[in-house]
Amino acid sequence: MKKWFVMTMIAALFVVAACGGNNNGGNAGNNANTGATEAPANNAEGGTAAEGEDITPEEGATLLVWESKEERPFIEAIGKEFTEKYGIEIKFEELGAADQVNKLISDGPAGLGADVVVFPHDNLGKAVSAGLVLPNDFYAEQSKSENSELAVNAVSYDNVLYGYPRSVETYALFYNKALIPNAPKTFDEVVEFAKTFNDPAANKYALMWEVGNFYFNYPFISTGGYVYGDNGQNKDDIGLNNEGAVAGMKYYGSLKNSILPMNSGDITYDIKKGLFTGGTLAMDINGPWTIADYKAAGIDFGVAPLPSINGQPASSFSGVKAFYVNSFSKYPNAARLFARFASTKEAQLKDFEMTGAIPANTEATADSAVQGNEIVKGFVEQFNQSTPMPSIPEMGNVWAPIGAAFSDVWNSGKDAKEALDNAVQQIKDANNGAAAQ
Q: What values do phi and psi take at 424, rounded to 5?
């Protein structure tokens, strides 16, 4: 379910678009050496930097940054600019974004972790609960005003902003223009297209997605339902079996007979990719990690927002990658300064130019370099109607029960409300058990 984080969009879109120290207290208040301009370090109300004002870095600071292999060109380039401006050396250590929180759990308290880290937002709850990252306090107002509201909410936890948003990612609708010149606007249009296009004996199908994976099935919940309330932060408010979610699940179940007469276990990423590149699958709901393969196959394809469901926009799960400051850093102010420097509009456009990462910054997203790329524009449009995956630790209790509910409805025709009620009860039991511990 986390394949989109492991196989990042950054490398795929490139094809299209062209040392931490010892802990001196373990929190911003004890570590800070900010000079006259710094705000209180744990200010959860927001930052205090005036327009154009920078935090005062510690003397003699050097910074270690963890980042993925795909982002090395950008980090090295932006690090060089930072060093030239502030005289602070930036060291790079290759580490995949999805692995950083786990490594920081062991390396952070030992003083071995990077000063600045990058990870997908659904790991934020785990990081905050373990005391690994500092709030984005000094530059909070800039981060909030300059970036997408979705991105800002995603990198906040318990109403505190921690991240410095850098890039966004989600899945959308790929369509083979030779088979279907224009992307359908509604799922009902997909159903109508399937009536004349589908030929299972010839492996011809109108649309595929990983129907057994809740990550890709969330759009059917999104038509009135949700996972957790309060922007995914309230584990006691579960919206997976409300009226809207049940209606979406019923519609989902009807699609097996109308567009995709296969069991969920028989629809995998590799099977979809093979059919799409082979020219017998007209549409595929997928993420940007597959762009390179589809381009290499010579397919003339487009990317569009997901078709609406029951007359409502289909919201996809989305992720936001951001910079975070290690709470055990010896140089927390210098780390804040770099996280800000590497996440401005100009920096995000440079990242897009060098690696293809879609900006979180609203002005950068509106730039002609982004909007002029048809593939990227399709993902941006879908992101604008997406839902950030909840970042609280209790999200881990959702995947298995809700995934089983979708499989039961698809494969066995189980009643949608019964399946969802059962899943929600399992989630509640797991959440309460975790809380009791």
A: -65, -40
